[in-house]
């Protein structure tokens, strides 16, 4: 989810046991970005408001954030379930042939001239990412995100092209 000015980077899942800490579910593999941010933006009644970060901690696979001056469950309960945004100027610079998940979502996927569907999700697995494509009938097609399979990605035109040699397996 992205518009010209703001990028979603996570969602607030719950309050942590420690007072004022929130469990964050990141929407990308770049959870390290939370350690470099001074503030994030959260939609409060249709208006994006700045929440200044006091502390960020990482525990195995979970990210916890404490916002400045929010010290109790009562202080923070109203933002549980909300999305977290950053200004697009704070977006990370990626290496060549690397893409943000939010840029890949809604890409039209083709094998040659054949339209397969829209990319609706990216599964981050230990071996490699897997693109979840939904065809016109709502059926999901899973495509490994490997260079030998992905011929080209055009983020500007929201198109992803598969190698002609890639064999799709039908159930």
Descriptive overview:
It is built from two helices and twelve strands. The protein has 171 residues and is mainly β. It has two domains: 84 residues, RimM (Elongation Factor Tu (Ef-tu), domain 3), CATH 2.40.30; 62 residues, SH3 type barrels (Roll). Strand 1 and strand 2 form a beta hairpin. The longest helix is centred in the middle third of the chain and has 4 residues. The protein is elongated.
Brief synopsis:
The chain has 171 residues and is mainly beta. The protein has helices at residues 73-76, 101-104, and strands spanning 6-15, 21-26, 39-44, 47-59, 62-67, 83-87, 108-111, 114-124, 129-134, 140-144, 150-154, 159-162.
Which SSEs are present, and which pair or pack?
Blueprint (H helix, E strand, L loop, with lengths): L5 E10 L5 E6 L12 E6 L2 E13 L2 E6 L5 H4 L6 E5 L13 H4 L3 E4 L2 E11 L4 E6 L5 E5 L5 E5 L4 E4 L9
- Spatial arrangement of strands, main beta sheet: 1-2-5-4-3-6
Any guess at the CATH architecture of the largest domain? Beta Barrel
Question: Uncertain spans, ≥5 residues at pLDDT below 50?
Answer: none
**How far is the N terminus from the C terminus?**
31 Å
What is the CATH superfamily classification of the largest domain?
RimM
Q: What is the total tally of β strands?
A: 12
Kindly state the percentage of residues in helix: under 10%
Number of helices: 2
How many strands, which pairing sense, and closed or not: the largest β-sheet? 6 strands, antiparallel, barrel
SSE string: EEEEEHEHEEEEEE
% residues in beta strands: over 45%
What is the radius of gyration computed over CA atoms, rounded to a whole number of angstroms? 19 Å
CATH class of the largest domain: Mainly Beta
Given helix and strand content, the structural type is mainly beta
What is the overall silhouette? Answer: elongated
Task: Tally the structural domains.
Answer: 2
The mean pLDDT is 86
